[in-house]
Amino acid sequence: MYICLCHGISDKKIMKLAEQYGISTIRGIRQVTPLGSQCGKCIRQAKEVLEQVTFIQ
Ligand code: FES
């Protein structure tokens, strides 16, 4: 499922980045992707995805 429609970033992509690089914050994701840089509507949902990944680890 796409989280960031503006840049085509999916929940799987966010999870993969979080796992591969140990990223646990939106700031970290934004350093490697343009997530949230256009309309910003995806930030809240991206946070929820990150929380799920951190919860699972
Ligand atoms: Fe992510 Fe617009 S949906 S910047």
Automatic annotation (TrEMBL):
Q: Which Gene3D superfamilies match?
A: BFD-like [2Fe-2S]-binding domain
> Which cofactors does the annotated protein need, by name?
[2Fe-2S] cluster
Pfam families cross-referenced by the UniProt entry? Fer2_BFD
| Homology family | Belongs to the Bfd family.
Statement: the UniProt record of this protein carries the keyword Iron-sulfur:
yes
Domain named BFD-like [2Fe-2S]-binding: residues: 2-51
Could you cite one Gene Ontology molecular function of this protein?
A: 2 iron, 2 sulfur cluster binding
Q: What is the source species?
A: Photobacterium lutimaris
Keyword line: 2Fe-2S, Electron transport, Iron, Iron-sulfur, Metal-binding, Transport
Q: Highest taxon of the source?
A: Bacteria
Q: What is this protein's name?
A: Bacterioferritin-associated ferredoxin
